[in-house]
């Protein structure tokens, strides 16, 4: 018998509905509701003008009420003269409610004109590393990181081109739910964009970018954020405002995102350490580090965060992990396969964590009639494997995939999968890809083509040994995954 034969699958019927509850907030000041959709009036048109004197008073702390959390210390890097900042941008303050095409049209027209051009080479902008895509969060959303400290001097960067690069990067991910992390530290008077450019950028990011953005984390907010928020709040919809969460310290962010995965810049880490020392009055506690070091031994029933070999050893030698079988069987039902946005939509974080805990305790799997919950759990299982399915040893070869001549790619991929991939990994990969081919067969209904599935599964199948995945590696990984999906019949042994 051929050793590379997949186990059989059994299906069980379950009705499915989409049910998502509010996402918990990082603070009592901001409630977050990921199931909110944007209406056709994303930009509101309030009739009242912004009161400049009131804005200045609020920014300076002499009047009004702030709706955001204040940083315990100033970062000392950005100009604090906010009266001058406001005065220097009167066209924004006075005209936000009635900006015309003359004020914002030039940039928007340039962006629309670029849509008809050939794909632009952004290597000169990408080299700064301002934008990074680092994988998925706890509920299966892609995480995009923007670091202000990596912005070059205004004399070096073409801001309209920078905006085109941001849109070029986001275009690959906005069709699925995603989260955005903005590290504000490092924004100085030398690299700070103008307020008019920020407004133009907001106008350029239309409904498709905002609809699937489920969380915007503003890390280490300072007075400049207050200025921008005070100026723009009159024209930013309340629904979008609920997605914004202010994070004063990285420990707050750690409750919801894996910090090791975020590739946090060194200056941001140093700044956060200084903030914590200030907060603790010089007493640095090691409680979090100790908790991380005291990792308990996994239970025999555990399936998340362990190795394939561990799962196999504790499940009577089963080649395919029980959870993967349950997810695939459930998602192979016609109603699930035909669900639009399958694998692109997130699930309720409390439901995900609760079911993860129960599965690790060996309790029966119950998806609660939630297709997206099953889809997120499958992605989470792959993402949290002790070693990725496409092993650390293969990472460098996979990230060089696009450099191979096209006629060489089929042979090299076969060598990589059939010869270099461990047998247990091969079995699971084949099982997974054959299921995903069924998803592709229903792409007219679920909108999940091979390229869409590659964007979703690529970073969950392939990871760097240091747990950080750069934007430069995302393209080759997705291209490799797409190739395997499209050519699976020629790659895998029947």
UniProtKB/TrEMBL annotation:
Residues 306-492 form the Rho-GAP domain. SUPFAM superfamilies: CRAL/TRIO domain, GTPase activation domain, GAP. GO terms for cellular component: cytoplasm. CDD domains: SEC14. Gene3D superfamilies: CRAL-TRIO lipid binding domain (3.40.525.10), Rho GTPase activation protein (1.10.555.10). One of its GO terms (molecular function) is GTPase activator activity. Residues 1-30 are annotated as: Disordered. Residues 121-276 form the CRAL-TRIO domain. GO terms for biological process: negative regulation of endocytic recycling; small GTPase-mediated signal transduction. It holds the Pfam family CRAL_TRIO_2. PANTHER family: RHO GTPASE-ACTIVATING PROTEIN 68F. This is Rho GTPase-activating protein 1.
């Amino acid at each position: 018998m051929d050793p590379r034969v997949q186990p059989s699958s059994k299906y069980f019927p379950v009705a499915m509905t989409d049910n998502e509850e509010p996402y918990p907030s990082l603070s009592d000041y901001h409630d977050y509701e990921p199931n909110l959709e944007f209406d056709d009036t994303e930009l509101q048109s309030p009739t009242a003008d912004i009161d400049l004197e009131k804005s200045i008073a609020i920014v300076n702390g002499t009047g009004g009420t702030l709706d955001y959390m204040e940083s315990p210390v100033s970062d000392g890097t950005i100009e604090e003269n906010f009266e001058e900042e406001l005065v220097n941008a009167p066209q924004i303050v006075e005209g936000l409610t009635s900006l015309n095409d003359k004020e914002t049209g030039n940039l928007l027209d340039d962006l629309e004109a670029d849509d008809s051009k050939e794909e632009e080479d952004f290597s000169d902008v990408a080299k700064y590393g301002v934008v990074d895509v680092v994988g998925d969060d706890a509920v299966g959303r892609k995480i995009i990181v923007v670091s202000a400290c990596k912005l070059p001097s205004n004399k070096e960067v073409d801001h309209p081109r920078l905006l085109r690069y941001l849109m070029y990067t986001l275009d690959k991910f906005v069709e699925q739910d995603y989260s955005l992390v903005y590290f504000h530290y490092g924004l100085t008077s030398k690299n700070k964009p103008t307020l008019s450019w920020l407004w133009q950028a907001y106008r350029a990011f239309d409904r498709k970018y905002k609809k699937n953005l489920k969380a915007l984390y503003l890390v280490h907010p300072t007075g400049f954020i207050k200025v921008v928020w005070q100026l723009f709040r009159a024209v930013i919809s309340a629904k979008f405002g609920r997605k914004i969460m202010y994070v004063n310290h990285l420990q707050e962010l750690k409750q919801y995102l894996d910090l090791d995965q975020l590739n946090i810049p060194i200056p941001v880490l140093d700044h956060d350490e200084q903030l914590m020392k200030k907060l603790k009055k010089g007493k640095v506690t090691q409680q979090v580090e100790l908790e991380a070091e005291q990792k308990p031994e996994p239970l025999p029933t555990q399936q998340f965060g362990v190795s394939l070999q561990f799962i196999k050893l504790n499940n009577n030698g089963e080649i395919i992990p029980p959870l993967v079988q349950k997810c695939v069987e459930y998602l192979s039902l016609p109603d699930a396969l035909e669900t639009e946005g399958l694998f692109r939509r997130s699930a309720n974080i409390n439901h995900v964590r609760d079911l993860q805990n129960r599965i690790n305790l060996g309790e029966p799997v119950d998806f609660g009639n939630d297709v997206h919950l099953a889809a997120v759990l499958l992605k989470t299982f792959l993402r949290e494997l002790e070693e990725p399915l496409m092993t650390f040893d293969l990472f460098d070869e996979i990230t060089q995939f696009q450099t191979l001549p096209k006629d060489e790619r089929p042979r090299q991929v076969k060598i990589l999968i059939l010869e270099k991939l461990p047998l247990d990994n091969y079995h699971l990969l084949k099982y997974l890809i054959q299921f995903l081919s069924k998803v592709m067969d229903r792409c007219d209904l679920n909108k999940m083509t091979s390229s869409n599935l590659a964007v979703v599964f690529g970073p969950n199948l392939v990871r760097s040994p240091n747990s950080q995945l750069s934007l430069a590696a995302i393209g080759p990984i997705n291209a490799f995954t797409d190739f395997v999906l499209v050519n699976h019949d020629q790659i895998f042994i029947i």
